[in-house]
Design brief:
7-stranded antiparallel β-sheet; mainly beta; single chain; disordered C terminus; 24 strands; 9% helix; 9-stranded antiparallel β-sheet
Length: 293
Amino acid sequence: MKQLNRITPQASAHWVGDGFPVRNLISIPRDAEHASPFLMLDFAGPQHFAPASVPRGVGEHPHRGFETVTIVYQGEVAHRDTTGNSGVIGPGDVQWMTAAAGVLHDEFHSPAFSREGGTLEMAQLWVNLPARDKLGEPAYQAIGAAQIPEVVLPENAGSLRVIAGEYAGAQGPARTHSPMNVWDLRLNAGGHAAFTLPEGWTTLLVVLRGEVTVGGKAIQTAQTGHFSRGGTGLAVTVGQDSQVLLLSGAPLNEPIAHYGPFVMNTKQELIAAIEDFNSGRFGRLMDESAPMS
């Protein structure tokens, strides 16, 4: 069995731009060394927004050296970037953006969601890239909810969506640069679920909402359980209806150099990233005043 090594404290909320009230459930300074290939995870909401004439969100900003994985549970988020990709993702959809050598993008509530108002709930995961891929070509995967296989768990324990990797013969649609599983679980109160995960992989159990118990210890809303890499089994008991991300991946075993939106392997590479951004080598979005619809 994989052993539960620690549970992070419940995270406090802060705002990213004016559209995303987030709690940081995986932190680069605190967790990245032991969470590889996963770097960070922010959970936004659930937060109700009144109708607005101007979309809320976060304006143009850069990334280099990693990937962002955005999962929407409620509401809609509009994205555009300097590679020419743009789109809107809604409930159940996933956006997997590979920043690699560098992109600028912005993220706002969609025009329709802004006009109508409503509840926003979403998670954004940062996934590190191997050193060989950090300066590769940026890429973008728009993954609709209908593309993501959903498996019913035994004994009415809930369901599992396979975003990346494999579960019970179901293959996730996301293309990844290193081996990993990104599983999105809805668990029913009173249920029990058991999972088999690869020996030697990082394993993180992120409770977005609810409460689950592992080895007699409760992992609650806005907490993350960090497990040993040794062992293959993980069993959970569900105390409340829960929304959970179960993340597992082969650790990269490479140094991490981090500054803001850049994640590289050395300080010199960080300096180069900042210089490239400041000199305009990441490109420029067409219209800085508003997101594309």
